[in-house]
Each structure stands twice: as C-alpha cells, then as structure tokens.
Amino acid sequence: MEKQQVPEAVISRLPLYLRVLEQLRNDGFEVVNSGQLATLLHSSPGQIRKDLTYFGHFGKRGEGYRIAELADNVRQIIGLDRVWNAAVIGVGSLGSAVINYPGFEPAKFRIVAAFDREPEIIGTVVNGIHVQDISELPETVVRSSISIGIVTVPGEYAQNVAGLLIKAGIEAILNYAPIQLRTPEHVKVANIDPVLSLQSMTYHLKNTRSDRKIPSL
Amino acid sequence: MEKQQVPEAVISRLPLYLRVLEQLRNDGFEVVNSGQLATLLHSSPGQIRKDLTYFGHFGKRGEGYRIAELADNVRQIIGLDRVWNAAVIGVGSLGSAVINYPGFEPAKFRIVAAFDREPEIIGTVVNGIHVQDISELPETVVRSSISIGIVTVPGEYAQNVAGLLIKAGIEAILNYAPIQLRTPEHVKVANIDPVLSLQSMTYHLKNTRSDRKIPSL
DNA sequence: GTTTGTGAAGGATTTCACAGCA
DNA sequence: TGCTGTGAAATCCTTCACAAAC
C-alpha cells in the first residue's frame, strides 16, 4: 500500500506523537502546527512534517493539523485502533510489577494471561490474573488470541520461553531478560534493559568526581 | 583524548560487548575473535572491529582478542571500573520493584537512597533502604555522592523531580515516567517506557488477525 | 594462513530551504 | 502571510573489501 519503505526511526516516533496529540486533545486544543509539536516533543518542525508525509497529507497549509483527526490517523497507522492481548511469562517480583503496571491498559494492551513454572506461584491470582502452568501456554495463547509475549523470567530461561512463544504463534515479544533473544525474522523483539541504559550513560559521566564539594557551601 | 567523536550508536553497544566478554571469561575462555563475538551478539564481525577501533588496537592479527584484557579495556572506556551511586525517587510499586531489582548491583550501580513525599511511605525500609522525605534529597545527593537519579514517580510529577535532581547536581537520569523530560545539555537521560516499545511493535503486527485458527488443528 | 584494522562505498536518517497551497 | 509538503544536501552509521600484522 505504501509507496516506499518507512524507516524504523519514523515508526518509533509515532507513538510519541500520538501521546502528545491525545494530551493536547484532552487539554481542549483543536489545532496544532509542526512548530508547536516540535517544542512539546523536543524535536524539529521539519522532522515532524517529514515523518508524517510517509503516510499521507494530514495538514492544512497556513493552518496546521487538526488534532483529533491527526490523532485518529496516527492511531490507525500504528495499529492502536484496537486492543492487543498480551501474556506475561514469569511471575516473580518483576513479572508481578508488570502485571500490576497501570500504564498498559489505557495504551491498548491488555494482559490476559500469566504463566510460571513454580508450583507455589501457579494458581495464585495477581491483579485479577490467574497464574497458569507454563505447559498451558500454547493452548491459552491461541484460545485467548494473545499476540504479544512479555518475558520476565531470569536470563537463563528466556531463550526457551521465547521459543515456546514463537511456536505458539506469537509475533511480538517484550523482553525484560538481560539477553539478546534469537528469533525468526518475522518476530519482533523489544528489549527493556535498565542496566544497559545506565551503562551507556556512564560513558559520558566518567570524568565526574565522586568527591565533589557541596555546590552551595 | 580521542581523535574523533565516537558515535552514540557505538557507545550504546559497548555495554553489550562487555556483557558477553564477561560471560565468556566466566565460562573459561581466553581468546575470542570478531566472528565469534558477532555470532554471540547477533552483530557482524566488521562492526565489532570498527567499533573497537574508535578506542584503540586491542586485538592480535591472526589470533583475535584476549578476553580478559579486552573486557578490562571496555570496562574502563565506559566507566564501569568503579561503582556508581543512585537514588530512587518515588517508592510506589514501580519504585519498590526497581529498588528490589537484583540486576543493578553486579552491574556497578548501587541504590543508596530512596525518596517519596507520602507520609505513609517515608520512614519505611525497602530492601534495606530507608525511604526519606523528598525534601532531604539535595543534601543526601551530595553527602552520599549520588550521580544518578532513577525517576519512578507518576508522569505529572516527573519534571519537577528532574528539576530537583538537576539542581542537586545529578548528571544522569533513568526515567520511568511516560514523559519526555526537559533537561540541560549536560544531563543525560535514558527513558524506560515499555508502552512505547510495545506501541512501535504493533505497527508491524497490524495485519495479523486476532481470530486466526489454531495452527496445528 | 588467519584475523585485525581501516579507508572507501553504500545506505539510512536528518536537516535544509523553498515551492505550493490555504 | 503562514505553514505544510518535499526534493536535495548534509550528516550519521554500517557494510565492504583488502592491506597489514602476527
């Protein structure tokens, strides 16, 4: 349908655009221009306009973009005009925190199942979700139309869990384990790894002294 | 000191390199070549060699890299030859999960303080950390040599907290709040936002049907 | 012979500047 | 006049291919 391949960098910015558009709409605004969006997004007007032209012509010259209309378009482009079902695998403290995180539901992601392999955890209920035995995963994934697997098991089990998910037909994985998952081409993986994020920041900090003096004294 | 500016993309890969080098060393290996590293990292031999040349000549032609030596070099380059102190701001369920996360300590990050503004939370102890009143942040940051702030407050308070941290002299922020923080040039920010990660994957999934049939039936 | 180190080519992404339209 | 839409230029990053070193 699209004339050309859309850069990944553009796709990764669309959810941010949608977020501020919905914020603006909630605040009662109706029209916005690329300069205002750039300020809110810490981006540039040109980049925002260029990004949007990969998908169509959404603005009016001399006026800007109608917020509700643009939000609807962006929402549809990135596939958020529907709800996506997800499963959490690994219900330790990290998995529990994920299941309890209130940010997924309003963003169109619904956690509908959770799995573990520990007998003490199986059968417990976390935020209304009944924890199942990992062996029930293949059937539940299909029956509950689960498209996304959220991997919160320890690193040494993550590759096996990913294999299970892929065999069950899942096409996207949100991976909290500190390993690089090996997956087939068609399965998307996003990694959440706060340690790596911290470690790439220290490169820039390495000249700071830990024994610096109190600034105001 | 360096001859040229090192690309951010290179810096963000160094922690991954370090991780597999330490793994290899723990497994008893002594030498590795760029092809083997590329396999482990899902990268390419050329990219690994190119990345390393931004910092020096670490290999022996015809042989490869000595693992312990290269690991030491990479560790020093990214500033992980020391421990970095961090503070968590916001001790709700997300903040508690962060404080309890066992992955920071072995990666050279030590959470040494936690802050909240709720009287019911102040004074509690989470994983050995005494939760302080947010008003004590400036003094504690300096006295405990804290370089990194981990922001786990709700989005509407995150910018204020970031301002406090910056005023206290912090230079890196790990931001779990779903907003783009505005910070001065010299303060590094890394965002952890699982919702954005999920939302950029659905673009690629949007043609999948939720009513697909069970593959094996 | 093997594998590194690296300039040069290629590709991706961002920025620029201005034509085009309301 | 004001702001979008968009080729072209510039920049950033990755891949390639081979000379150099062991």
Summarize the structure.
Two copies of one chain form a homodimer. The first copy, chain A, has helices at 8-26, 34-41, 45-53, 67-77, 93-100, 137-143, 155-167, 194-205; strands at residues 31-32, 59-60, 64-66, 84-89, 109-116, 125-126, 129-133, 146-151, 172-175, 188-191. By secondary structure, chain A is of the alpha/beta class.
Essential attributes:
homodimer, 217 residues, alpha/beta, 7-stranded mixed sheet, 3-stranded antiparallel sheet, disordered C terminus, DNA-binding
Strand content of the residues of chain A, in percent? 15-25%
Low-confidence stretches of chain A: 209-217
Q: What's the N-to-C terminus distance of chain A? A: 64 Å
Q: What is the structural class of chain A?
A: alpha/beta
Largest interface: A-B, 63 and 64 residues
Strand order of the largest sheet of chain A: 6-7-5-4-8-9-10
Question: How would you describe the shape of chain A?
Answer: elongated
Averaged pLDDT of chain A? 93
User: How many strand segments of chain A?
Assistant: 10
Looking at the chains present, what oligomeric state does this protein adopt?
homodimer
Q: Can you walk me through this structure?
A:
2 copies of one chain form a homodimer. The first copy, chain A, is an alpha/beta fold and 217 residues long. In chain A, 40% of the residues lie in helices and 19% in strands. Chain A contains 8 helices and 10 strands. In chain A, the strands form 2 sheets. Chain A has a 7-stranded mixed β-sheet with strand order 6-7-5-4-8-9-10. In chain A, strands 1-3-2 form a 3-stranded antiparallel β-sheet. In chain A, helix 1 (8-26) packs antiparallel against helix 4 (67-77) and helix 2 (34-41) packs across helix 3. The N and C termini of chain A lie far apart (64 Å). Mean pLDDT of chain A is 93; it is low at 209-217. Chains A and B meet through helix 1, strand 4, helix 5, strand 10 and helix 8 of A and helix 1, strand 4, helix 5, strand 10 and helix 8 of B. The structure holds a DNA duplex (22 and 22 nucleotides).
